[in-house]
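Write out this protein's structure.
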Amino acid sequence: MCKGEAGSIVINPSINFAINKEKDGIIRILFLDDTLLNEYISKDGVFANITI
């Protein structure tokens, strides 16, 4: 089993973040500032928490 969730630096993860296990050995993560203005990643920190 593999699952993941957005880390603390991702603003509005329900809109801007997606994670998918494509197959064994491949995890795809997408981040998109849907506002194209103010929800970008602006600090260091945890981007994603992945449990394998």
